[in-house]
Specification:
Blueprint: H1 23-37, E1 44-47, H2 55-59, E2 61-67, E3 85-90, E4 96-100, H3 106-109, H4 112-124, E5 129-138, E6 147-156, H5 177-186, E7 192-197, H6 206-214, E8 219-221, H7 225-233, E9 237-247, H8 258-281
Parallel strand pairs: 1-4, 1-5, 5-9, 6-7, 7-8
Antiparallel strand pairs: 2-3, 3-4, 5-8, 6-9
Helix pairs in contact: 1-4, 4-7, 5-8
Amino acid sequence: MTETNQTSSPSTASALQGDHPGFEQARQAAAALAQATGVDRHRIAVVLGSGWGGAAELIGETTATVPTAELPGFAAPSVPGHNPTVRSVRLKDGSQALVFGSRTHFYEHRDAQAVAHTVRTAAAAGAEIVVLTNGCGGLNPDWAPGTPVLVADHINLTGATPLSGATFVDLTDLYSPRIRQIAREVDPELPEGVYVQFSGPQYETPAEVNYARTIGGDLVGMSTALDAIAARHAGLEVFGISLVTNAAAGISGDPLSHEEVVEAGQAAGPRISALLAGIIEKL
């Protein structure tokens, strides 16, 4: 039977109630993680996107590392610059966090269920909060490469959803105002904006970027929105933060490349990693 209850707000109760497609496989992956890490419950989950990999070292003490591809439902990432592991990390308050060194992108499989598997596994592992990070193109010329930006909302232009059937989920305040305020306490200068997810893997055309700006977008990329929808459905409190790795197509006139994204992430890595660790310490 398809789960049909409307979800209006995140819940700290055990998520993944019911038999929505993908939930059983997420429970299997969470059970495998518990066995491999020796940790029954992880309070926070962190998904590291392009440029954010160094944060894993600063969040806390890594107590176990599991290759992602060894877990049910996961495959090794196909994107250069992503770490194919999941870490169990002990935070300063003694609780544990799951740190995913990579995510599944929609363009890898054209399958929103595969994208959702990471956050659903986190929920099945006991997480209450998920931190979604990404590298993206910036539409604001004042945001130079290396600028971190809080995600206040998103626009999903993939034409897909991780939800199945009459599963009605309220996405009001999807990106936690509470955690965004905590982030501003760590860095009062943090800007925020609306993230627009395209399906990829091609970069957006200047016309598409102009369209995204016209409909209210500030950031463009190929991840995060589908993850966030699945996370809210699974009962998680969602925090999103982007790293502007390049000006979006047509903003600067320069051609786009994945190498540019990786280089910008490496240059900003120490600063944004410390920022993310400072935010997580307060959660």
